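Encode chain A's predicted structure.
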Amino acid sequence: MTMAAARGLLDRREISSVELTTAFLDRISVFDVKVNAYITVDREGALAAAAAADRRIAEGRAASLTGIPLSLKDVLCTKGMRTTAGSKILEGFIPPYDATVTARLRESGAVILGKVAMDEFAMGSSSETCAYGVPCNPWRLDCICGGSSGGSAASVAAAECLASIGSDTGGSIRQPASHCGIVGMKPTYGRVSRYGLLAYASSLDQLGPMTRDVRDCAMLLNAISGHDRRDSTSVDRPVPDYIAALNRGVSGLRIGLPREYFSAGLDPEVEKTVGDAVSRLGAAGAEIVEVSLPHTDYAVAAYYIVAPAEASSNLSRYDGVRFGHRNLEAADVQEMFRRSRSEGFGPEVKRRIMIGAYALSAGYYDAYYKKALQVRTLVAGDFTEAFAGCDLLISPVAPTPAWKLGEKTGDPLAMYLSDILTIPANLVGIPAVSVPAGFSAAGLPIGVQIQAPHFREESLLACARVLEESSSIGGRRPEPAE
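Encoded structure for chain A:
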């Protein structure tokens, strides 16, 4: 069932939100033992919200999300429900307020089933750094579901919710969406408020929808987009009706193929899947052109200076005094700081804090952080030039399908390089979406990435819709979740 289908059933009173929510909660209790998508399930709160939604529907006050059961990545503040960011340092943290996105979902009548697993503080590409257990890919339980929004992707793919909200700092919505066979969109930076998002890298973080199909993506994006005065990076710009844009098609559009995204190391099955998608867009009336993004090779290196530098600053607040776990056995304040952070943070978070602190330190700032910002500017220039000659870009999301659990945990560099095709969009701040496009011989989903200029989400969704409707993979669902 999609969100749109559930909306119809609820409006026609063929099912109540309480019944729908109960069905999902019961499914979570049975299948999440295998998938491990949820950190926190709020059964009582969800059923209360569902009952309130049923009253709104009965009174004729239903909005597009009223009564729709969703999950949230555990990086969004939820008043009265614990928010951990996948880290032991926030194990008992219960926010006193809702994030703006959370509040907008509640105001629309959505039912929040609970909070789902993620890489600790969104630092990872496989969700294996989560301190509360590793979520599995519903298509193959011995494989990663992607990261850092792995729990969001897994919960949607395993039918443990109708949709989810993820966050994307370097591909953390699109990559797990690709690996789990769902739709995942990173909107333009500033389109969706980040207020109440536990920050990783503030100039890169972005919240977005993770759904079963493109129409649901548009529905959820409509609900969470818009200016927020509490977020200084939020853009005060009218929000279009994204659902109305779905049927625009691609006829007459010029769609670029970045040659640097099809280089050595790209899995042949991924390349073929993208090639098939390109052919379908051409048949639908799009003109396919080759473009170049010459600084792509430097994007990962720049990202892994900029993001850790911002993380080292953002995570300094988790010191056992202002926020987070506190060691109660330390002899003095300095030891308390050191032991609290050592006990609370996992190895990957510590690694990135140290990298960031080093890059910002005296004598190294110009050599690393400043240079990374200069490279970021060059990457942005590449996209400006490319979009001067085309409307959209199409490419793989990840170089390979999902890999086996544990396969890359001992090789951080290999893990970092898995995001080579998604990181540039975050550095530039443009919108991008992952759309299911095929399967590997091993039965693992493969997604296709579409990127657009700033605030051109309508074009992204219209193109994604064409790919979805022309695909032969609709209706397939993961068997391991059954």
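The mean pLDDT is 96.
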